[in-house]
Structure formats: C-alpha cells, structure tokens
Amino acid sequence: MELIFYGGVNEIGGNKFLLKHRNTAVFLDFGKSFNRENKYFDFPLLRPFFIQDLKKIQAIPEIKGLYRDSHEKSGVDCVLLTHPHVDHFGYVSLLNSSVLVHLGEGAKTIMDIRSEIYRVGWDRKLDHLTFDTFRSGDERQVGDFVYIPYSVDHSVPASYGFIIQLGEKIVLYTGDLRRHGTMSHLTEHFLRIAKKESVDVMLCEGTNVAPQNEDVFLRGFENEFMRRIGKVAPERVKRHCKTEADVEREMKMLVDDLDGLILVETCPADIDRIRTIWKVSKATGRKLILDSRQAYLTYELDKRDPKVEDLPCTSDSFVYFNRIRDRDADMDGTEAEKKWRPKFQQDLIEMCDQICMGFEGREEVRRNAGEYIFCTDNASHKLLELREDRHFECHFVLSKSEPFNEEMVISFDRLLHWLASYQIKQYHQIHVSGHCNEKDLVNIIEEVNPNLLIPIHTEHPVLLARLVEKKIREIKIPVFQGKIEV
To answer: Which of 44, 52, 351, 451 shows its CA 20 to 30 Å from the CA of 298?
Structure first.
C-alpha cells in the first residue's frame, strides 16, 4: 500500500491524498488549497485562469491524464469525498471525466445547490463528471478497495469518515469531525465501529491542535489596531462555549439583553449555526434575516434533503438582497430590479413573501432594527449598505473562527473599521468549531489505537504526534508530495 500527499500537509484544508494498492488508485478528497493559492494569487486582480496556472504553483499534482484538458486516462480510478466543503472538493471540477467521484447523497445535493448560487467559471464546472452517491453504512468496492462511509458530526450535513480495506490492511480516514455538535451521536457510532476494527493506518485531522500561545498573533493585531484608531476601537468579548447548545444559550442571553439590530457573521455553509441563530430568533421573538446565498442554500436543502431537519423556511424568515452592482435600481420597484439579478435570486423573490430589497427594505431594517437578527457571511458588506446619516443601534456577533493568518487579518481589519464607524464599542465572539477540540481528538486516537497514525489537516502535526506518542505504536509526519509505504 502506498500513500502520496499532494495537500492537507502542514495546512488546514487542501486535502488530496492518493492511496494506491495493487492495480487501484483512489484519491481521498481533492480539495482547494487556500494557503497555496493565497501565496501566489490575489482575487480578483491576480487569479488563475487555466489548469496549468494551478500546476505551476503545485496547488494540484502533475499527474498525466488526471485533468479535463487531457484526452488520456490517468490511472486514478476515483475520488472519495468526505464532505461538501471547498477545501475538500474544490478542485474536483478540474478532473478528467474518466475519474469517478464517490460522495454522499446529501453532499451531492449541497454541491448542486452551491453551483446554482455561484457563477460557474472554468474552475467550477461539474457537468462532465460522473457521480456515484452513497449512504452511511453502504459497502462499496472500487477495484482492489472495499470502503464503508460512516456519517460524522461536522458543521455541514452529509459529512463522512471512511473505513477502507485493502487486502489485509485497514485504513481509517476521519475526514473532518467533532464530538460537540448537534449530531455528535453520528461521530460516536463511527468510532464504535472503528474500535472493533484492527486499524493499520489512521489519517486523522488535527485542525484545533495548536500551541497554547497561538493567540499571540491575534492579540498583537488587536493591540496595534487599538493603537492606530484609539478609543473608538471595538473590543472583542469572547463568550466561551464548548458545544453548539452553549452557542445557542449564550446567544439567546445576549440577544435578550440588547436592543437594536443583532448582526451575526457566520461561515457561508455552516448549516448548524444558521439553525442555531434561527432558534435564537424564535426564542427571543425576533425575525430572522438571511443573506440571499445562505437563504437559497437553506431553503433548497430543506426541500431536497428530508434528512436535514429543523431549518429556517420561507414562511418564518426574511431574505436580504444586496444592492445591484453598477446599477442603482432602488427606485425602480421589485419587478424592474428583479430582472437584473442572478437566477437564484430571481427564484428566491418568487418563492418568498418576506424580503428586504432596495431602499425600502434597508430602511425597514434601520427603522425597526430591534425586531431583527441578521445572519450573514459578510458583515462588512451589510454594514456598508445599511449605513445612513441617521444612526440606528446595532450590535455585532462574530460566530465563526477568529482570523489566524495575515490574509484573514486584512479583511478583519476592514470589519473593525466598519464597526467603529457604527460606534460599536464591543462585539461578541460566540462560536464552537466544526472540528474536535484537542482533548477529544487525543481521546479518539487512543480509542481507535491504530498501528500507524498520520496527522493531516493541521498546521501542527508534530504537536499532535507528541500528544499521543506514548500510546500509539508508530507515527509518521507526512511531507508535501511525499510518499509513505505501508
């Protein structure tokens, strides 16, 4: 058995692991590497335009016949996708049509919905690929591989870990998982199955493994920000949460104590968090406003996948439509403005009775700010559009991870300036990760007790190795584009 690493090594995301056994070769995920792209590109001024551009910076591997710009076959049989996050599936669109894509039914649904929301460019086309969907517990065979996917708890539905049998060897691939979310029983079921196996190789994510002083980066940025802009600098108040239930409780307590608009920034596809904010809105008697992209993803997922429950629907939430770029359609009325919008927004206008659009929609939010919770994946954009000469009370909640690199800090700096312009002196961070905390992760590794542990999806693989080195027989730290033979 041979493992070759083309991403997901000393980085969070970008997973691309080529697993070979006899005459079969399978990629475990084929995700976009944001770290690597950010080193060379600056969207939208400098960006890749061809597959070759990504090869030049080693964002994707140089394998003959692997991509759709080739008429040859690559020797790669398929890709097994763990879940529908871009850092795990983002480069799948580049693959040759001869490479099958295996993924969960729900994951395919979410990928389809996302393709309807975002403009389909050269790097997002999926219609040339053949997809084979599975459900949790299905046993599948690909050449010399036999694999079983198991549902796990993560921040997006349809997330899986894999148990793969290659001859006499058992490989366990965790994907991304956690024990503290609303579906933690799925992770526990996966681990119960894994503990019964004699796992030879465990590829284990370690997203949240970090030195205790890692937050020095953010603290330094915040101190410098306060020095630059003085007393108007917003101060972060972190509310410590261990589970998604804690997030709901803390957010409800905060909303009960505050007047004015509650603006919450989340990750675009964090379905669990959108559900939590919706529950808080109902418990506090406020109306939920969703960004158009988050609304379309949520409403369509509710319609297309009955297994995903307790989601906001068109009857109990509002949809906010951004201003149309390069065109001031505020005074033209709904029908006139509608024709200038992308199709998914036109569909939303048809299916929703409760919308916030144009000058009147923004004025409604300002005038009755205390009646709403606004969920968005881009708070700076909303603060820009809602800003008028007349002041209205607004409070901000950061409900996702804080910035941990220079690229994220640039965007965060901009957000803090917008908060200061609204005279917001404090903002609140209320969040739990979509990944295991360090303690849970160590326990999972010790429970599975593999013969060989390979840390992936972490910036600190050596630290993870040290945490479990006394309990695990052998640990290997993968090298980018390196090979491990078992």
So the answer is: 44
Strand order in the sheet with 100-104: 131-134, 100-104, 78-80, 24-28, 17-21, 2-5, 483-485
Question: Which is nearest to 301 in space by CA: 432, 160, 158, 187?
Answer: 158
* pTM for this model (two decimals): 0.93
Lowest mean pLDDT across 18-27, 143-152, 261-270, 322-331: 322-331
pLDDT confidence tier of residue 212, bands split at 50, 70 and 90? confident
Assess whether pLDDT exceeds 70 at residue 135.
Answer: yes
Angle between helices 244-257 and 271-284 (to 10 degrees): 40
- In this structure, are residues 416 and 424 in contact, taking their beta carbons and an 8 Å threshold? no
Residue labelled with tokens 């406003």? 289
Q: Which residues pair with 403 in a beta bridge?
A: none
Of 427, 87, 405, the C-alpha closest to 238 is 427
C-beta of residue 459 within 8 angstroms of C-beta of residue 229: no
Please report which helix (H) or strand (E) contains residue 24, including its range. Answer: strand 24-28
Which structural domains are found in the chain, ordered by start?
2-208+434-485 (3.60.15.10), 216-430 (3.40.50.10710)
Residue 69, burial from CB neighbour count under 10 angstroms (0-12, 13-18, 19+) = exposed
Q: Residue 51 contacts by C-beta under 8 Å, 6 or more apart in sequence?
A: 60, 67, 68, 69, 94
Other CB atoms within 10 A of residue 312 CB? 23
Instruction: Give the pLDDT score at 284.
Output: 98
Per-residue tokens: 288: 């939920």
Contact 89, 81 (CB under 8 A): yes
Cβ-proximal residues to 29 (8 Å cutoff; 6+ apart), any chain: 8, 15, 16, 17, 79, 80, 81, 82, 88, 89, 175
Does pLDDT of 218 surpass 80? no
Per-residue model confidence (pLDDT) at position 333: 58
Q: 434: helix, coil or strand?
A: coil
